[in-house]
Amino acid sequence: MGIKSFSRARAIHVMLVYTGGCNGCDIEIVNSILSPRFDAEQYKVFLTWNPREADVLVVTGPVTHLNRKPLEAIYEAIPNPKLVVAAGSCALMGGVYKNCHGDIPSEEIEGPVENVIPVNAKIPGCAVRPQDVLAGVVSLLPTLLDAD
Amino acid sequence: MDEKVPKSNIIETEIPMGTVHPAALEPYRVRLFVEDEIVQEAEITIGVNHRGIERIMEGLPVEKANALTEKICGICSNSHIWNSCRTAEMGLNIEIPERAEYIRVIMGELERLHSHFLYLAHGCEVLSHETFSMRVFYMREIVMELLAMIGGNRVQYGCSVLGGVRPRCDLDEAKLLRLKNDMDALEENLTGFVDRFMADSILLSRVTGIGVLPQKQAIKLAVTGPTLRATGVARDLRTTMFEYDNFDFNVITQPDGDVKSNLIMRALESFESIKIIRQAIANIPEGKVVNRDWEMFDTDIVQSYIEVPRGTLYHSYRLEGGRVRHSIIRTPSMANIGAMQYACIGDQITDAQLCIVQCDPCFTCTDRAIEIIRR
Amino acid sequence: MFENILTNPIFAVVITVLVCFIISTLLPGIERKYIHARIQQRIGPPVTSPGIMAPLKFMFKENVNISSPVPGLYKALPVICFIVVLCVMIALTPQAYMIPALASLVAIVGFLKVEEICYVLMGALSKSVMSVNMPFPDQIKGAAHNNANRSFIEDISAKRSLRMITYGSFPLYLALFAPVTAAGSIFLQDIVSFQQVNGPFLFTVSGGIAAIVFFIGYMIILNEYPFSIIKAKSDVIEGPYMEYAAKYRAVVVITRGFFMFVLGAIFSVLFIGVPPTIMSWGILINIAVALIFVFMMGIFSAFSPVFTNRQLLPTILGATLLGILSIVLGLL
Asked: What is the crossing angle of helices C105-125 and C71-92, to 10°?
């Protein structure tokens, strides 16, 4: 293992972008990093709010119309190598908002996230559990380490 | 002070923040118009979260629609499904077993606890006080575990169903005992935190007199919930709800309407919630938890108001052949947006996000009824 | 032969700076793991992660086109900051006393001022995606003040750094000049030799007060909570550093750790009279002072919220008055 992979494995900066879900996933993810109960920092995962600093972009929510461009802009701002984690069933498949077949179909959802930006890992759950978020981010490690 | 007026009308510059910002737990855009770092005017643009819930609810079977209302908000999800079921039950004259009512109250109050703790934690986070924020998050974890124990999930529990609660959510002796013990632990932790908070003069100097919302203005803006009670108006819908008839609790008010009042308000209200849960554990009646003995018929538009952690929640719809028609949902944050914009005026930019947070925003709740005209 | 190399002053300076630099990279990790995380009752990151591994990782990231009106200058600023801190470090070593122009308080104050001015330029030149550049239709029909002049959040932070230059850094500079009153000279050599004769300045009344003022100034110039108004998370996110990516961000992270150490070294030179040099055991005192400062700063920052201008002004005013008091006491 070279010094590149070695250092990458020991400092992972995660940025969270919420794109209009129900808030449940956002709070669980912030919780998983902020709460001393889960404390992502002990696994060398740091929360950042600056796209220039981030390595992993965690996206929650079905991408609504107004959120599409901000999401793309933030994705563009992250320097390579970058990885995207889609967390929660909304981010995976549009969630209940896209697949709830009432009389009027939903027109508000651009998602799932895959339609907007490439996704590297998916974390299912409604809402995602903090343990799953940590596992999902850590599961990306091999991909991140091998990237140029 | 009856009304805050900006000291001058000069707009030096505009600072937009969002849609992604560390001080916000959900996407929204706020434009602050400032002069010399003092906010003269604030404009919150919502609609970022618009998923058209009421529209996709149209024509859904009522059970499915109830489940969908839960997805409106990840913080007060139980309140939405509770009120939605309550609307149908009022329309169809369904009798709810008393035990189910008690369990619903327990869930409602647990949710109030977790929402208020989130408020406290988020408030400390926006104050950049990481240590206190983590302490509250740690306390909140006790409540989350309890919610997961009763509902089976940490966020969306799906507790209420038509005619009562889901049999999964029934409370046996062991669960009640754990609930009781955790309430004791929670009260102890919360007392410690509040004592520590009130003794911290640096923190108090930071929150006193910030984001003042005068009572007169709060009434004018039709503010609801704890934000209204923090300005000194004792208005709590729980005093009029039949579910809370058997419970004894106080309506907490605070005098000032600033961030300090709001934070203390949430902490004191949490103690009342613990009190209500203890009464419910002590007096929970025996019997079944769900009444399946009801018939579906067409109804007129039924309206239901309940008090949720963040204010007054309104649901109304009409049933037609078992399907939901003309659903309207009005959430507390809708009324409180005006208060948020108002509270920012006259404060530093660093405090602006705090002033927004003090009104307990939940824009995911709010973004439904707004029509977006796309060009 | 070997003796010659070891006594060569340039070689001694290089080794001293290198040792100090390596120790300084551990400081952010120590602050994060052993102070913040302990107070917050969690395990916290490994000591090496924030200070060593994060910059190394940023080194290997692909460089991006940053959004700034003058990208060249913006990218040069962290390097300038690092060189400035390096110069201060070199000025503190006893070998530099041969060059009186460098090893004097005026030179150190000048270097620190350059550092502060860099923050203003960084803030003014950074145009991040997180505020105005976010593609969001908010200047629409019906919105308030549609033709208002729009500012990036970093512009606010630049204005604040300018304010910090004008009054925020008074305490630090007053504390720096307090030892001068006792030693009667602005040259580090005289201050050090004065203290070696008369005992550390820290243990006089004037020195004790000046040490408190120095600590407040230390937190202000490092932009640590509660004085982190130029990079307060609740409004300007990261302030001047918003747009740094890849290796420039690595330099920013390294500079911060090194700056922590250098400020500690300044304290040990001016208040204890122990210059950092690899040639004597005195360097252990330098390291201990730097660690104590980091510990104290960590404890203070873990228990305080960010100050706005409302709290900042009285705090700085109070610290400035204390600083003046210490100088007056020193002159008496």
From this structure: 160
- Going from the C-alpha of C16 to that of each of C1, C11, C55, C260, the distances in angstroms are 20, 9, 22, 16
Token pair in block for residue C213: 């003022």
Structural domain boundaries, residue B161: 13-366
Contact B146, B169 (CB under 8 A): no
Residue C320: partners with Cβ closer than 8 Å, 6 or more residues away: C167, C170, C171, C174
Phi, psi (degrees; rounded to nearest 5) at B166: -60, 135
Report helix, strand and coil shares of chain C as percent, to nearest 5: 70, 0, 30
Give the helix/strand (H/E) hosting A87.
strand A83-87
For residue B104, give the CATH number of its domain: 1.10.645.10
Touching subunits of A (3+ CB pairs, under 8 Å) are: B, C
- B134 alpha carbon, distance to own chain's centre: 21
Instruction: Provide DSSP, B253-317.
Output: --SS-SHHHHHHHHHHHHHHHHHHHHHHHHHPPPS-SB-----------EEEEEEETTEEEEEEE
Contact C50 A11 (CB under 8 A): yes
A-chain residues near B374 (CB < 8 A): 65
What is the count of structural domains for chain B? 1
B33-90 confidence digits (pLDDT tens):
888 888 888 888 887 888 888 888 888 899 889 988 888 888 888 999 999 999 999 9
**If phi over 0 gives left and psi between -120 and 50 gives alpha, with beta otherwise, what is residue B287?**
left
Both tokens assigned to B213: 């919302």
- With beta carbons less than 8 A apart as the criterion, state whether B67 and B81 touch: yes
What are the phi and psi torsion angles at C128 (to 5°)?
-80, 165
Q: Please say whether the dihedral angle defined by the alpha carbons of residues B228, B231, B237 and B243, taken in this order, is positive or negative.
A: positive
Strand order in the sheet with B323-330: B302-308, B311-320, B323-330
Number of cross-chain residue pairs from B and C with Cβ atoms under 8 Å apart: 126
Contacts of B91 (CB under 8 A, 6+ apart): B299, B300, B302, B318, B319
CATH code of A72's domain:
3.40.50.12280
Q: Is residue B7 part of a domain?
A: no
Cα angle for residues C184, C189, C191 (degrees, 5° grid):
40
| Helix residue ranges per DSSP H, B60-158 | 62-70, 77-92, 98-126, 130-151
For B134, name the nearest residue in chain C, comparing CA atoms only: C40
Q: Please check whether residue A4 lies inside any domain of the structure.
A: no
Q: How confident is the model at residue C2 (pLDDT cuts 50, 70, 90)?
A: low
The residues, ordered by sequence, that sit 6+ positions from B320 with a Cβ below 8 Å of its Cβ are B298
| Residue percentage of chain B with pLDDT more than 90 | 37
pTM: 0.93
Asked if residue B194 has pLDDT above 90, the reply is yes
Q: How many CB atoms lie within 10 A of CB C311?
A: 19
CA C138 to chain centre: 38
Distance CA B39, CA C249 (A): 32
Measure CB to CB from residue C134 to each of A13, A73, A148 and give the nearest one. A73
For A97, the domain range is 13-143
Residue B306 falls inside a structural domain: yes
Buried b (16+ CB within 10 A) or exposed e, B113-136: bbbbbbbbbbbbbbbbbbbbbbbb
B320 interfaces chain C, CB cutoff of 8 Å: no
pLDDT digits (tens, 9 = 90+) for C103-122: 888 999 999 999 999 999 99
d(CA A10, CA B103): 46
| CB proximity under 8 Å: B 99-118 to A | 118
